[in-house]
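Journal club prep — side note

Before the paper discussion, L.F. wants everyone to see what a predicted structure for a comparable chain looks like in token form. Sequence:
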Amino acid sequence: MKKKVFAVLKVVLLIVLIFIALFPIYWLIGLSIRPMSEMKGHISLIPHTLTAEHFIGLFRDKGFGIALRNSLETTLISTALALLIGLCTAYVLARQRFQFWMKRPLSFWVFLIRILPPVAFTIPLYIMFAKTGILNTKIPVIFACILINITFIIWYMISFFQGLPESIEESARIDGATEWQLFVKIVLPLVAPGIAAVAMLSFLYAWNEYTYSVIFVQQASNYTIPLALATINTEDNLTNFGMTAAGGVISMIPITLFVLFAQNYLIAGLSSGAVKD
């Protein structure tokens, strides 16, 4: 009897926790599809009328399509470059056969970047970008995201590469594989779960990046989604909750799709090392 009571309590607790976790998402979607007339005074949990006016106005009046394109460009470019550089660097740092005098200082530099908050780099980056004349473009945001994501990828992937037995690589070298073939065709497939995890987390950071964007970008034509959402509510219209919610719903779609397609690799990557053989 006690076991049944505990089982029921666990189910009830699980339902409550799921409700608490998903309610903000439900509320965001609900605000995005209900008319403004239902957002005055008492707001019901369930919309009485459904409308797409907020999504239409977002793209028609606020130029949200440009912000969406800018976010996709900056996120995909920065994530791809960060993965390319970060994976190669992590592999070199993880293998003893690659020896050079900057190897230890480079490792310390990676960990130093990881423990410092991103805002600590705003002033040096701003001065550097100002001198090179690329401020008010998307390039500074891309570089800033690459800087932060590279250190995370290196720090995260070193343990994956160190966990691979070197005997596999030695066998491939005996068969005539070059270092690049060894890395691309043998090593990377073996650490695919880790790559999926860092790719998702790097994509998520670049997609939601706001600090560097608000400092380095002032032109509306270069706004990303976080900046566009921050400027929806103006002095003339301080309570445009519908458009803000619609923008939030749109901003969730790429991350949601990415996680759905990569969830198997993602779970394996995030849980790697939790269980020892």
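L.F.'s comment for the group: The two ends are 37 Å apart (CA to CA). Keep this in mind when we get to the figures.
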